[in-house]
């Protein structure tokens, strides 16, 4: 890519309008101009970035299972979550989510990478962390997490759960794959 193409935006924002907001998200519509001169509309969901933590202990990987209202079912996933903007650094957020959801603390938390949730419609990113040197403590669940179940599974069983569709959370699958490809699992 030459310097001229690097500076040129593929799509120019003509205007932006907020259409919805609550404490967890903002939805906006952007009127845009494409590089061919045609106009269009983009719907964008803005959400706080989050952390996903992959706890690796002597019994394997710790997953949490909870009811997910939007899809109407209970699902296994790695501990994950966000806080108010600027409340925590990404590493502090990872440690806090691990403790809150599982009661675990880790002597070592390694950042493995950063991914986008769904950049076709959202600007949200998440960082993947591997937590090792685990010690059990008390959980501190949010009201939405009162039904949360926590359990360790052997790594091979988590892989099987991904392959057979038991685990369907894209963040969990991506985090597992990233750590596996980096040779950390």
UniProtKB/TrEMBL annotation:
Residue ranges occupied by any Nudix hydrolase domain in the UniProt entry: 52-172
Highest taxon above the source species: Bacteria
Record flagged with keyword ATP-binding: no
Residues annotated as signal peptide: none
UniProt keyword list: Hydrolase
GO biological process: nucleoside phosphate metabolic process; ribose phosphate metabolic process
An annotated GO cellular component: cytosol
Pfam families recorded: NUDIX
Record's keyword annotation contains Hydrolase: yes
GO molecular function ontology, one term from the record: hydrolase activity
InterPro entries in the record: NUDIX_hydrolase-like_dom_sf, NUDIX_hydrolase_dom
Protein name according to UniProt: NUDIX hydrolase
Upper lineage: Bacteria, Pseudomonadati, Spirochaetota, Spirochaetia, Spirochaetales
